[in-house]
């Protein structure tokens, strides 16, 4: 592998990581601690991630339990969750916060599947942008012969095709998870 395909592969790996992170934020009927990642709690004047303030457990598929290490942060965590766009009402028992995850309706599951499809398409576009940028760099490299440039472009295209297939496989898996009752 040349330096061009190595760099392209690294960038495409980052596209897959971003896709995985975006998929983890899509709310299914299952409790997933990653949906809390974007939520920040005002803790002594600092926006702090929930995972730095509390233990997050998933005792069953449709329930998440948040246990703050500092009990004084309980109300702040609850307010941050209510203010977020999760669409889940937290219940506070004075020690922990429980987040019940209701099963989505058929219509909502279809919406989530469409959302996943859009996220996957963004990843495909990012991968194709890496291909385009790499090909542009190859075209500008005057040290390479036409044959070498052609060979490199074919290698980059093969890499692109492989990564797009991986995106499709990840989408298929996530769609099946979303559509599961």
What would your notes on this structure say?
- By secondary structure, the chain is α+β, with helices and mostly antiparallel strands.
- It has 2 domains: 3-25 and 105-179, Topoisomerase I, Chain A, domain 4 (Orthogonal Bundle), CATH 1.10.132.20; 33-100, Gyrase A, domain 2, CATH 3.30.1360.
- It has 4 helices and 6 strands, in the order H-E-E-E-E-H-E-E-H-H.
- The protein has helices at 3-24, 74-83, 106-140, 146-179, and strands at residues 40-43, 46-49, 54-60, 63-68, 91-92, 97-100.
- It has a 4-stranded antiparallel β-sheet with strand order 3-4-6-5, with helices on one face. Strands 1-2 form a two-stranded antiparallel ribbon.
- Strand 1 and strand 2 (46-49) form a beta hairpin.
- Helix 1 runs antiparallel to helix 3 (106-140).
- The longest helix has 35 residues, at 106-140.
- It is elongated.
- The relative contact order is 0.17.
- The model has no long low-confidence stretch (mean pLDDT 89).
What key phrases describe this protein's structure?
181 residues, alpha+beta, Topoisomerase I, Chain A, domain 4, Gyrase A, domain 2, 2 domains, four-stranded antiparallel beta sheet, two-stranded antiparallel ribbon, 4 helices, 15% strand
In short:
The protein is of the alpha+beta class. It has helices spanning 3-24, 74-83, 106-140, 146-179; strands at residues 40-43, 46-49, 54-60, 63-68, 91-92, 97-100.
The third-level CATH topology of the largest domain is Topoisomerase I, Chain A, domain 4
**Computed structural class:** alpha+beta
Secondary structure: number of strands? 6
Strand content: 5-15%
Unreliable spans are none
CATH C-level class of the largest domain: Mainly Alpha
